[in-house]
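Lab channel / #folding
Pinned by the channel admin:
"Please post every new chain as: sequence first, then the structure tokens as a reply. Keep commentary short and put observations after the output so the thread stays searchable."

First post following the new format, from NK:
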Amino acid sequence: SGAEIGGAFGGEKATGGGRESGSDAWKGYMRRATNTINYGDALPLAQGIRFDV
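Reply from TO:
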């Protein structure tokens, strides 16, 4: 599950142009996402974090 989420969001992150700078932040968030295992919640939360960064 974690790998799939990371890969799917990895593409979006790359498009944003902050993949390297957001790598650590994304890794930390991905850990929480895998812990929760909530795709519905992970989508909006990830978007909010991406915009914040």
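NK: The chain is about 80% helix and 0% strand.
TO: also worth noting, The longest helix spans residues 2-16.
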